[in-house]
C-alpha cells in the first residue's frame, strides 16, 4: 500500500474516510495529511472500496477513521487492529451518535423530508455510535460533542477543525474580482454551509436587521443555504442583503476576505 510523506522507517498513520465527498473530510482528513507532510510521519490513505482492512492495519501504527458507519468492513478493521494492538481513532464532527435526536425537530436538514429519509439518518447515527464504541479513542471538534461521545467511549479528545497552509497557498485566495470584489461600507458575512444552521442564524436575525436599519451603508452577505423564512426580519432592509450560492471550499477564503464581521454558525 503506497505511503505519502517520509520514509519507510517513519511512524505510519492510515486515514480512512466514510464521507470522502463531504466538507468535513477536507478539514478532518485532507488538511491533516497536508499538515503531516513536513513531519517525520508517513501517511496511508485507506479506501474501503479498494483496500482490505487487514492490509491497512498491517501497514500502520495508527488508524484514523472519519465518519464511517459500522459495517462488515469496519468490523474487520477493528478486529485486525485489536489482534495487532494498533490503535484506531474514530473521528466525528457532528452530534450524529444519538438516533433519538436525529429528527426534524432537532435536525434542520430533515425538515420536510420523507419518513424513509429520517429513518435512514437515524440508522446512520446508530452505526456511527457503534463505530465510536468499538474505537480505541474518539476525536471530536467541540467540548459539548466530547461530552456526548463520552457516553460511548471513555477516551475522547477535542481536536478542532484546522487548516494547513500549503493547499491554501497553492489554490488561492486570489484578489477579489468582478461583482464579488465591489465593496463599500460595512460588510457582515454569514457563510452558512448547510441548512442545519438556520436556527443558529435566527438567534441573531433581529439584532442584525436592526443594525442594517441603523447603518444604511452596511450590508449582510450570505453565502450558501439559508431559508427565506430565516430572513423575515429583514423585509424592511432587503436591499442591504446580498445572497451568494455555496462555493467550492477553496473559493471561500476569497469571499470571506471581504467580510468586516464574520458570523460563525454554531
Layout: helices, strands, pairs:
Blueprint lengths: L3 E2 L6 E6 L5 H14 L5 E5 L6 H6 L3 E5 L5 H13 L3 E4 L23 H20 L2 E4 L2 H7 L6 E3 L6 H7 L15 E5 L6 H17 L4 E5 L17 E4 L7 H5 L4 E3 L3
Parallel strand pairs: 2-3, 2-4, 4-5, 5-6, 6-7, 8-9, 8-11, 9-10
Antiparallel strand pairs: 1-3
Walk me through the structure.
The structure is a single chain. The chain has 2 domains: 4-166, Glycogen Phosphorylase B (Rossmann fold, 3-Layer(aba) Sandwich); 172-263, Rossmann fold. Residues 175-180 have low confidence and may be disordered. The longest helix is centred in the middle third of the chain and has 20 residues, at 115-134. The protein is of the alpha/beta class and 266 residues long. Strands 1-3-2-4-5-6-7 form a 7-stranded mixed beta sheet, sandwiched between helices. It has a 4-stranded parallel beta sheet with strand order 10-9-8-11, with no helix packed on it. Helix content is 33%, strand content 17%.
Amino acid at each position: 500500500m503506497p505511503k505519502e510523506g517520509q520514509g519507510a522507517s517513519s511512524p505510519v498513520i492510515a486515514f480512512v474516510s466514510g464521507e470522502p465527498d463531504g466538507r468535513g473530510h477536507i478539514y478532518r482528513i485532507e488538511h491533516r495529511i497536508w499538515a503531516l507532510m513536513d513531519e517525520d510521519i508517513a501517511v496511508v490513505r485507506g479506501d474501503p472500496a479498494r483496500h482490505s482492512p487487514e492490509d491497512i492495519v498491517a501497514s500502520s501504527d495508527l488508524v484514523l477513521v472519519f465518519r464511517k458507519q459500522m459495517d462488515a468492513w469496519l468490523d474487520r478493521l477493528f478486529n485486525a487492529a485489536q489482534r495487532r494492538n494498533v490503535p484506531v481513532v474514530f473521528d466525528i464532527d457532528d452530534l450524529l451518535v444519538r438516533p433519538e435526536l436525529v429528527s426534524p425537530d432537532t435536525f434542520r436538514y430533515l425538515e420536510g423530508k420523507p419518513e424513509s429519509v429520517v429513518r435512514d439518518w437515524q440508522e446512520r447515527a446508530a452505526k456511527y455510535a457503534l463505530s465510536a464504541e468499538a474505537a480505541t479513542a474518539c476525536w471530536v471538534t467541540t467540548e459539548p460533542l466530547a461530552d456526548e461521545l463520552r457516553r460511548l467511549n471513555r477516551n475522547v479528545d477535542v481536536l478542532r477543525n484546522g487548516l494547513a497552509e500549503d493547499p491554501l497557498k497553492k489554490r488561492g485566495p486570489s484578489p477579489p474580482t468582478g461583482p464579488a470584489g465591489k465593496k463599500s461600507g460595512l460588510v457582515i458575512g454569514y457563510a452558512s454551509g448547510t441548512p442545519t444552521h438556520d436556527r443558529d442564524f435566527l438567534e441573531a436575525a433581529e439584532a442584525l436587521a436592526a443594525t442594517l436599519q441603523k447603518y444604511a451603508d452596511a450590508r449582510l452577505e450570505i453565502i450558501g443555504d439559508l431559508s427565506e423564512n430565516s430572513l423575515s426580519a429583514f423585509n424592511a432592509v432587503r436591499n442591504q442583503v446580498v445572497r451568494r450560492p455555496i462555493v467550492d471550499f477553496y473559493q471561500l477564503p476569497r469571499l470571506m476576505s471581504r467580510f468586516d464581521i464574520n458570523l460563525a454558525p454554531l
